[in-house]
Write a structure and sequence with these properties.
By secondary structure, the chain is an alpha+beta fold. Helices cover 56% and strands 20% of the residues.
Length: 193
Amino acid sequence: MIGDINLIPQTEVVEQKKTEAVKTSTVVSIVVLVLSITIGAYFLIMTSGINNQISGVNKDITALRGQITALSQVEISARNLDRKYGVLKTLFSGRSQYSLLLQEIKSRQPSDQLSIESLDVKLGQASIAGNAENYVAIASFINNIVNKNFEGGNPKLKELFTTVTLNSVSLDKATNQVKYFILVSFDESKLKQ
């Protein structure tokens, strides 16, 4: 029981416990402080890295937006070209080939007896004026135009002409030639081959 006797005064024991508590709390505080500083530094470094990445991504986004803006003019030009191409395609696919009409009129013209001085073509109608040796040449020309079984022209255009009207015919006494003016109606769809 000798070991149970404590000769240290009670105030001294309290002082030692206080000192030990202060030392322990100081060590714990320092450990917590070091741990807090370490965690804070880690988060600071991570935040700085993330901010740098965000800054880099923002620069890339800005550069890509600049490229997109630069390509907007190309897109506008491409759309305009596509629209123009569509219009031209429609025009070329739907246009009448009046050269076929002229060739067919030329093929139905009687040889040297009749000349065509003027030809005016409108939608579905042509007016032809000229001179002929005689009235028979004009009649032959008119008959050739309305003849569906005419042998000399383009076989695909046999039914091109629908009607022929002789508007005027007169004899020029000075040249002894017959002047004529005729209106020819034709099927416009036959010229869109």
